[in-house]
Write a structure and sequence with these properties.
Blueprint lengths: L1 H26 L4 H26 L18 H8 L2 E2 L2 E2 L2
Antiparallel strand pairs: 1-2
Helix pairs in contact: 1-2
């Protein structure tokens, strides 16, 4: 699932970066170097935004540990107890 999110983010970044570069150079008459900067900036922003949005939308966890979400089955008290080294209300030696 993660590779699909990254691929779609990269593809959309390339697409919208190219459109932004074309508009900057041919519609607004900016120099070519400014069009290349526009392509890079718009492409990076779009790639990061799309990949982040798709990650936040996904609710699957493949268990690989890579960008996996926290376990929502535990309550805050159980997480705090685990962080403090406690197990079922008793301190672990």
């Amino acid at each position: 699932m993660g590779e699909n999110m990254a691929f779609f983010g990269l593809a959309s970044g390339m697409f919208f970066g190219a459109i932004a570069s074309f508009v900057a150079c041919f519609v607004y008459g900016l120099p070519l170097w400014m069009g290349l900067v526009t392509y890079s900036a718009c492409g990076v922003f779009t790639t990061m935004a799309v990949t982040t949005a798709l990650y936040m939308r996904s609710d699957s966890d493949d268990g690989s540990g890579s960008m996996s979400r926290f376990n929502e089955d535990k309550s805050d008290a159980e997480w705090l107890a685990a962080l403090n080294g406690e197990s079922k209300g008793q301190k672990v030696a």
